[in-house]
Write a structure and sequence with these properties.
Blueprint lengths: L5 H10 L5 E5 L2 E5 L5 H10 L7 E2 L3 E4 L10 E9 L4 E9 L5 E3 L8 H12 L2 E3 L43
Parallel strand pairs: 2-6, 7-8
Antiparallel strand pairs: 1-2, 3-5, 4-5, 5-6
Length: about 170
């Protein structure tokens, strides 16, 4: 574990001998956790006064298709911010098809609600326990297609055919 980051030391103390992977890149520390303990880890990082990650800044879907050396195709990254300690930490969960389900973090960070809905629509993730899993961005024409996956066609998957082009004169 990367012991330079104070929050990782606290996590190690809290979790005991459970092994977590860490990576450091461009000055940011990422901890990779199993999805089964994601809520426990994030709750600890939020509630622990020495960590105090009171802000979830985003929920980031990642498609590693074609990326060498990745153990799974998908990941979800949760960038956390501690304003009190002026620290950032990224918590990442690796996901493999067909099970792209992770626990929702809306009970810890209410700001996760819209970001989880966006990641669900764009990548096909399921956030277990999410209070409002309705569509947020896409129309019903996007059924079982996920535009931010790398296998999505660059010109669309045919969902635009239903729309009538509008010219400048007719608008």
């Amino acid at each position: 574990m990367d012991q330079e980051h104070p929050s990782l030391t606290r996590l190690q103390e809290h979790l005991g001998d459970q092994h977590l992977q860490t990576r450091r890149h461009a000055g940011l520390t990422t901890v990779i956790v199993p999805k089964s303990i994601l809520p426990e880890i994030v709750r600890f990082l939020h509630d622990d006064p020495e960590s105090a990650y009171e802000q979830l800044t985003d929920v980031v879907g990642i498609d590693y298709r074609g990326y060498p050396g990745q153990p799974t195709r998908f990941a979800i990254a949760y960038p956390l911010l501690s304003l009190r300690h002026n620290r950032r930490l990224i918590v990442k969960v690796l996901l493999a098809e067909p099970d792209l389900t992770v626990p929702s973090l809306t009970g810890i960070y209410p700001s996760a609600e819209w970001a989880e809905r966006e990641a669900a629509e764009m990548f096909g993730f399921t956030f277990e326990g999410h209070p409002d899993p309705r569509r947020l961005l896409l129309s019903d024409l996007f059924e079982n297609v996920f535009p931010l996956r790398k296998d999505y066609p660059l010109r669309g998957a045919g969902e635009r055919i239903s729309f009538t082009p509008i010219s400048r004169d007719s608008a």
